[in-house]
Amino acid sequence: MKHDATFKRFSLSVIWFWLLLFALLPFGLVTIASFLSRDDVHLITLPLTIINYLQLNNSIYLRIFKESFYVAGICTAICLLLGYPFAYLIARMQNRFKNLLILLIIIPFWTSSLIRCYSMITILKPKGLINSILLWLGIIDKPLPLLFTDTSVMVGLVYNLLPFMILPLLTNIERLDHRLIDAARDLGANRLTTFRKIILPLTLPGILSGCILVFLPAMTIFYIPDLLGGSKSILLGNLIQNQFLIAQNWPLGSAISIVFTLLLAILLLIYWRSTRSNRAQDLL
Q1: pLDDT confidence tier of residue 214, bands split at 50, 70 and 90
Q2: What is the pLDDT of residues 252-263, one digit of tens each?
Q3: Do 181 and 38 meet the contact criterion of CB atoms below 8 Å apart?
C-alpha cells in the first residue's frame, strides 16, 4: 500500500509539472504579452496597455473572425451530417467489421496532416486526378478550377477533421441502451420518432464533443487555407500566424490568442453543463 501511494504521488507530481511547464506557463506568458507594447526594436516591451484588445474592434479583424466562424460552422455541420450516420452504422456492426472500419478511420492519423494536404493538391489541381478523369470521360473540355478556392479549403478541412467527429460519436453511440429503442418501437414509435425522442437526446454529449473537436481546429488550422486556398482565405489561425511571424506584432497576436482561448473555455463550459444536466436526468 505504501508503495502504491508513493507511485501515485509521483505520477501526479509528474503530471502537474508537465501541465505547469508546457500549458500554464506558456499561457501565462501569452497573457502577459497581450498587455504589453511593441516598438521597432523589441517584440514586446513596457508599458502595459489594453490597446491590443481594442484593435480587435477593427472591421478587418471582425470580418476575419466572422469568416472564421462561418467556415468553421459549415465544416462542423458537414462533418456532423457525414459522421453521425457513419458512426451509427459502425456501432451497429459486428466486431470484425467494426474494428476494420475503426482502423480505416485511424489510419490517416499515421500520416502528417501536412502531407495529406499535399495529396489533396495532387487530386484537385488542374492536371490532378479529378480533372484527368473528367477530361478522359469527356464530361468537361477544360480543367475545372478546383484548387485555390473556398471549396478546396472546405474539402481539406472536412477531410482532416472528420475523424474527430466520428470517434466521439462512435464512443457515445456504443453506450446506448438499445432496450430503450426496442421499447419505443414496441410502443408504436416509428424510426423518425425513435431517433428524435430517444437516440438524439442520448447521443447529444457525443455530438457536442465532436462539434467542439471540429469547430475549434477548423478556425485555427492555418496551413490548409495557405496550401489549398492559395493564401486567399485568411482565417483566425492565419491571422495569428501572420501577427507572430510576418508582422512581428507579438502583443496583438497574443491578444487574438487569448480571445480564442476564452472562446474555447466558453464552448467547454457549455459542453460541461450539458453533460452534467444529462447525468442529472439519468439519475432522476
Answers
A1: very high
A2: 999 999 998 888
A3: no
Q: DSSP per residue over 86-108, as a string?
A: HHHHHHHS-HHHHHHHHHHHHGG
Instruction: Give the closest residue to 143 by CA, choosing from 132, 153, 154, 155.
Output: 132
Q: Which residue has the higher pLDDT, 7 or 150?
A: 150
Q: How far apart are CA 256 and CA 254, in angstroms?
A: 5
- The closest alpha carbon to 130, from 154, 155, 105, belongs to 155
* Global confidence as pTM: 0.85
Q: How far apart are CA 10 and CA 26, in angstroms?
A: 23
Q: What is the per-residue pLDDT across 47-57, written as a single tens digit (0 to 9) for each?
A: 889 999 999 88
